[in-house]
Amino acid sequence: MGAPSRFSNGLNSSSGLDATNMMGQIDPSYYHTLFDDFEYFTAANWTITRVGTTPTEALVAGDGGLLLLTTSAGAADSTFLQDPIASFTVAAGFPIYAKMLLRLSDANLSSFVFGLQNVNTAPLTASATNGLFITKGSGVSNLSLISRSGGVSQTVVGSGGISMTNAVNAEVGFAYDGKTQLDGYFNGVKVASIPDIGTLPAGNLALVFGLQNGAAAIKTLTADYILAAKSR
Q1: If residue 81 lies in a helix (H) or strand (E), which one and from where to where?
Q2: What is the CATH number of the domain that holds 86?
Q3: How many domains is the chain partitioned into structurally?
Q4: 80, 98, 103, 231: which has the fewest C-beta neighbours closer than 10 Å?
């Protein structure tokens, strides 16, 4: 590894006119950011929706801080976590960036969702009436990039380079440019794009992620980190 760049006076993101113009570090107030590396987990801090007899959500040992979601064995059993405070809105002029590092015990017969949605208890269904998010269905390898407004969806299925493997980390994410475009990413490569999302998702949105069985067997999703950030 090469030597780091050294900025002895700091590095500043300020416009140069505001109160932090001489602060020797990046001003964190420029983005509203939700980031969780799962060094700690308190179930009461999330709205958790479970289907089945014994789904669980718990920290497990492993590099990077890991949260393990485990379903029970019913054919459509699930566990979904949503931030109880819907603290994001989609607005013109304010880009949004989101990504998640995860792995699935069964990369084929599992469905998952990650992104921003209206508060609901069934994020893989039409109950998610508004949002920007990514899903993967059971029995498919491709990801679906979705913009939904008032129950009307624009969906693009990812193509090229999408291949999830059992128990292997994959990074999924999306970026809204603050204008019209929504792009989806898999392992750092753009794999889907909606050039014009049309009507923006309405209302207050909350970060959501989770897992649903695609067969009558216990499945797991291991979350390494989640990130959502919107410019102010």
Answers
A1: strand 78-82
A2: 2.60.120.200
A3: 1
A4: 231
